[in-house]
Amino acid sequence: MLYGRQAEQAAVDELLQAPSGALVVRGEAGIGKSALLDYAAAKAHARVLRVNGVESEADLPFAALHLLLRPVLDHLGALPQQQAEALRGALGLGGPTRGDRFLVGLATLGLLVELSAAGPVVCLVDDAQWLDGESADALLFAARRLHDEPVAALFAARDGEFPARGLPELWLRELDAEAASGLVAEQAANLPPVVRDQLVAEAGGNPLALVELPRMLTAEGARSCRCRSPSARRSR
């Protein structure tokens, strides 16, 4: 269950139900971008291709594109020869030719369209701010050119990173108090209400913090929080 994300889930549902389209989910670290992509993966009645940007591979050309397309590279033969050769070269599967970015973008689009002939396709790209530049260019090139093909692309990136001009964006904000309290209650039902209230205040509406803080809280820390509560001080 995603607490306080009904509007965002509705936006993802709309994307998945549309003939085709793309969406960039933005927000700070821990705000729930990956959880929203997990929701999309679970709800999609489609072939799901997924990749996570890896910071240590951000300088390796086409590294992320290779991870994303590796399960479907057996379909390369359906592409025009020039595009197929460019994509093979970019992914290190062909001759030592340098991958032409335009042709690689066309080939990426063509491969997704080819896959969609057998059924809808959903591409999920997490931590897009860490994609290598060549992979980002190819995926954005394809995402901007989706028309009536049953292909959807959902990117998740941190605030102010991963420029994606021309694509709609969905910003994730902090959870409100009610949603934050519900999440903490689910994660830490054994903690006293006053302690859960303190965790909600400390987390500032960040879902990851709301999940991790209860795990970090020791039994001694919980007792200490109870001792500092107003009711505990009045009882002394």
UniProtKB/TrEMBL annotation:
Has keyword Nucleotide-binding? Answer: yes
What are the residue boundaries of the Orc1-like AAA ATPase domain, all occurrences included? Answer: 2-150
Q: Which UniProt keywords apply?
A: ATP-binding, Nucleotide-binding
Q: Which Pfam families match?
A: AAA_16
User: Which PANTHER family does UniProt cross-reference here?
Assistant: TESTICULAR SOLUBLE ADENYLYL CYCLASE, TRANSCRIPTIONAL ACTIVATOR DOMAIN
The protein depicted here goes by the name: Orc1-like AAA ATPase domain-containing protein
What organism is listed for this UniProt entry?
Nonomuraea africana
